[in-house]
Amino acid sequence: MKELSGKKILMLSPNFFGYENEIKKDIENKGATVLWYDERPKNDFFTKVFIRLNLKVLIKKKIYEYYNNIIEQTKNTKLDYLFLVAPETINEELITKIKSLHPNLEIYIYMWDSVKNKKNGFALLSIADKFFTFDPSDIKINQKIQFLPLFYIDDYKNLSINTTNKKYDISFVGTVHSDRYPIVKRLEEDFKVFHYFYSPSKLLFKLQRLLKSSFKNIDPSDIHFESFNKDDLLKLINESKAVIDIEHPDQKGLTMRTIEMLGARKKFITTNSNIREYDFFNEANILVIDRKNPVIAKSFLELPYVDLDNSIYEKYSLSNWTKHIFQ
Q1: Which helix (H) or strand (E) holds 172?
Q2: Is 177 left (phi over 0), alpha (psi -120 to 50) or beta?
Q3: Segment 106-132, tens digit of pLDDT
Q4: Nearest alpha carbon to residue 128 among 111, 140, 152
Q5: Side-chain-facing half-sphere of 99: CA atoms under 13 Å
Q6: Between these two residues, 51 and 253, which has the higher pLDDT value?
Q7: 21 pLDDT exceeds 70?
């Protein structure tokens, strides 16, 4: 890994369930100074919608005012790296302006959504010194793109899993999208399931119910508009025999929840068959189900978790993730 002691890093990322703080803290533990800013100028509903629908021209003035303020605040700091995580808003023109003030700046980009879903990130490929993706299919697009799976934070590694008195057979916590809702609800017919479906906005959920057929049968009382507390999530994992995650149909990369359950040494159920290609896959610990016909053998929930080699757990830690990016 490159020596980060004394280096200064401008980090731009979404405000995403506190992961940005964990990344910042880990890089700082390696000796760098990290100046973090939200990659979005605001996190209100309409700003997010304009960005997601690639209608940034409607808020261009707001975006440029926001980034010009960041540029002004950091212009007298000798920056060594610009680290972009899941960029949706910043463009090549703004990055070029930052680089003009810091000629030796190296630009590293990490995508935790597939390029197919977040084309803005791909548009920055030419200006990046390093470009990483969590989705293995993205590396076929351009040889410059490097594959790097997501990570788990130490809270999961340090989790003391209770092996008795499980309150739930299966638990699910995640954003409501695609076919997640009917899959989880179907499992309730045979198992004791805890679910927490999250939507970032009541207005967004109402629009989705109006415009998307897959949302029309969702019971609104099952939807929550506050993110699930991390301490409560760790407690829930302890109380569950297994955790389930359902990836978006348009992505092949493994979700953050997948890697977190590796770190927690927790039995895991997923619809993502690509997990079989990873070095931590073990049929004793991970069950791949058909999203159209989700069948779970009760024996999978009853048999114990099988520990893997410690090198596997180290490989997918946050510390190793940042080390790989800045190597």
Answers
A1: strand 168-175
A2: beta
A3: 999 999 987 777 777 888 999 999 999
A4: 111
A5: 16
A6: 253
A7: yes
- Separation CA 319–CA 327 (nearest Å): 12
Q: How many CB atoms lie within 10 A of CB 179?
A: 14
Residues 149-168, buried b or exposed e (16+ Cβ, 10 A)? bbbbbeebbebeeeeeeeeb
Give the model's confidence band at 263: pLDDT under 50 very low, under 70 low, under 90 confident, else very high.
very high
Give the position of tokens 């997923």.
Answer: 270
What lies within 8 Å, CB to CB, of 21 at 6+ separation is: none
Helices within the chain (DSSP H only): 19-29, 45-52, 60-74, 92-101, 119-122, 154-157, 180-187, 202-211, 230-238, 256-263, 298-302, 310-315, 318-325
Question: 183: helix, coil or strand?
Answer: helix
- In this structure, what DSSP letter does residue 236 have? H
Fold type of domain 8-148 = Rossmann fold (3.40.50)
Q: Where are the domains of the chain?
A: 8-148, 154-315
What pTM was estimated for this model as a whole?
Answer: 0.92
CATH 3.40.50 is right for the domain spanning 154-315: yes
- C-alpha 112/C-alpha 233 separation (Å) is 21
Residue 225 vs residues 18, 57, 103, 111, 235: alpha-carbon distances, Å: 17, 28, 43, 25, 20
Identity (one letter) of the amino acid at 159? L
Residue with tokens 């897959």: 214
